[in-house]
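STRUCTURE:
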């Protein structure tokens, strides 16, 4: 299931383990998501590897576009959260549009764009999941403060 309609209305992204110098992940919990956070989940009955690439991102603190690639292996029912994947050093998550490519195992990649900190909308995070039927899905979600 692709959720491009929601993406076009909102914009957004998140975090991932073996990526861009940020190798910390947490098991899923009830904490509020952070802007740019990536949640990766496997709702299928067999293990999978999900690859996430930032093809092009906003200009980082060193004047270069932000790019990164990472993979995460997930057992059935496993979920991991990467709250700081898009963070650049001590400067945190850089606002701007990111071109993201996601791929399940060796399948065809899917692409979407998102801005974790849009100017006129709430901040965003991304969920990338292997659906119960084995397909790859993604969702960009706004973070609403209570």
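SEQUENCE:
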């Amino acid at each position: 299931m692709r959720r491009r309609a929601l993406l076009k209305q909102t914009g957004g992204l998140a975090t991932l383990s073996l990526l861009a110098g940020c190798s910390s992940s947490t098991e899923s919990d009830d904490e509020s998501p952070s802007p740019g956070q990536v949640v990766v989940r496997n709702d299928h009955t067999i293990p999978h590897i999900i690859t996430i690439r930032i093809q092009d991102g906003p200009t980082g603190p060193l004047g270069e576009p932000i790019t990164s690639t990472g993979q995460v292996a997930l057992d059935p029912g496993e979920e991991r959260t990467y709250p700081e994947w898009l963070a650049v050093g001590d400067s945190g998550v850089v606002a701007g549009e990111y071109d993201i490519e996601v791929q399940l195992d060796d399948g065809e990649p899917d692409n979407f764009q998102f801005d974790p900190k849009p100017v006129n909308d709430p901040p965003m995070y991304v969920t990338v999941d292997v659906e119960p039927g084995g397909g790859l899905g993604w969702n960009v979600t706004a973070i609403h403060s209570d």
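REMARK: The mean pLDDT is 77.
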